[in-house]
């Protein structure tokens, strides 16, 4: 990616719209071929990309839309009595729509897609997918086409999340659960069968080695010493990025949002650039399954939001914090330890619990 040819490719992006459609398709396919080998290597070897010295101009402009993510200590008598410090990295503050780990994962994938000259981004998700919701809005900001494969049959009305995506220009295609599972096998940006020149495929949840580079920036922004970094897990991509980036003495704890999620351990290992032993995924706090809740979780959310004024959603971040409070109560952590929990955003998903 450091070659002079690829630098020139990014500089030429702005001029591509003036070429004929046939010439443009040929040029995009040439770019695909030139970038295919290093990305294919990342996928097979789990390597992180090196620093990029040139970025797509419209990607650089997109970055100006984002805010800093603060790091706040949770003041709570329960925590004071336990002797354990709990801090929260507020990635929900990054953007009102493209928030949390959704942007972290998309960030360098988008840069790669734009440097290839891609004009269409295609991905997959559920009817309340934070990933697709963020991708659709990115497409609107960048004025490029987006398409989402939606798991399951359409209901009598679109969900509020799908309505947003459609309003922002995303093409929605509903697929059976069997077909959706098949889509998970396509991991590379060019792997989707039938992909046309200019189209770029993003796996479910942005699960791609390039996502790890954006996630690593969370670690780089933390300027205080800490013992444990905790994150909710859906695909395990965010967790893999954190594991690959934290100092060796830091433990990374994932809290699964899914039931029967033993597969996450394998998926995280596949994404890691090298073997690490300073991590584990707790599978006990899914509260009945993905997007499921119970009275204990809902009561915790209400108390936490009232005492901290930090908004939560019950799918990911709330389950992580609920788990941490319970684990602290069980004395899983030693007095004096400092835990940093990642707020992964996705607050738009709260609408699914009132719709």
Based on the model shown, name its key terms.
single chain, 355 residues, alpha/beta, Rossmann fold, six-stranded mixed beta sheet, four-stranded parallel beta sheet, 13 helices, disordered N terminus
Explain what this protein looks like in three dimensions:
The protein is an alpha/beta fold and 355 residues long. It has one domain: 3-Layer(aba) Sandwich (Rossmann fold), CATH 3.40.50.1100. The protein contains 13 helices and ten strands. The strands form two sheets. It has a six-stranded mixed β-sheet, with helices on both faces. A four-stranded parallel β-sheet has the order 5-4-3-6. Helix 10 (237-243) crosses helix 11 (263-271). The termini are far apart.
Overall geometry: globular
The SSE string, one letter per element, is HHHEHEHEHEHEHEHEHEHEHHE
Tally the helices: what do you get?
13
The count of domains is 1
N- to C-terminal distance: 45 Å
Reported by name, the CATH topology is Rossmann fold
Strand order of the largest sheet: 1-2-10-7-8-9
Mean pLDDT: 88
Considering DSSP H and I runs of 4 or more, what fraction of the residues is helical? 40-55%
Instruction: Give the CATH level 1 class.
Output: Alpha Beta
| Computed Rg | 20 Å
Overall number of strands = 10
Strand portion, in percent? 5-15%
Structural class: alpha/beta
CATH architecture: 3-Layer(aba) Sandwich
Biggest sheet statistics: 6 strands, mixed
Describe the oligomeric state of these chains in a short phrase. single chain
- Unreliably modeled segments: 1-52
